[in-house]
Design a protein that fits this description.
Length: 187
């Protein structure tokens, strides 16, 4: 069975109807590790060795966050800057994450129509995610297109619940995929 690391970054979770419902739908299984970065590091003082160990123990690295200013919240970007180090995650000797799968789970307040070339934002969410895709490639990871929930401000409770069930099914489907071999990389 594959192992999933859910790296969750939401600076104001108490204001999020969608993410709170999603968190309630995470299957309670040993193969899924939920890791709330804002809960763990409210001071932004990241334990890099702990984070590297977590990455090494999992096959799927899922970055879950609300779309803030066309990107991820600050703590997740800070986490990437510190944890994905040259010589460990990328570079000539940086092979620790090779073959692992990177996927973003993103919520957007804007509609799918707003995230089109002719829409308000002039680009798709996938296009805004090119830096994540390139980061995954740099780390020799396999990048998957993001799982995106649009128009979160206009979703009623029933719609949110349906989206949360879809999210749960996504996680269960990933668990059944063939895991990658763990690297014997030192931290």
């Amino acid at each position: 069975m594959a192992r999933i690391l859910l790296l969750f970054a939401h600076p104001v979770l108490e204001n999020s109807r969608v993410h709170r419902e999603f968190l309630n739908q995470i299957p309670r299984q040993e193969a899924i590790t939920f890791h709330d970065l804002y809960e763990t590091y409210p001071d932004f003082l990241i334990d890099v060795h702990k984070e590297k160990r977590l990455l090494l123990e999992h096959d799927f690295i899922l970055f879950q966050f609300p779309f803030y200013w066309y990107s991820a919240p600050a703590l997740l970007k800070h986490w990437m800057e510190l944890v994905l180090e040259h010589g460990w995650a990328y570079g000539k000797k940086g092979t620790a994450l090779s073959g692992k799968i990177w996927m973003n789970i993103i919520t957007c307040g804007g509609s799918v129509e707003a995230y089109q070339p002719q829409g308000k934002n002039r680009h798709t969410v996938e296009e805004f995610c090119y830096p994540f895709e390139q980061s995954a490639r740099l780390c020799n990871m396999n990048y998957r297109n993001p799982y995106v929930i649009y128009g979160t401000h206009r979703l009623d409770p029933e719609m949110i619940h349906r989206e949360a069930i879809n999210y749960r099914q996504l996680l269960l489907n990933l668990l059944t995929e063939k895991p990658v071999s763990l690297n014997t990389i030192q931290i």
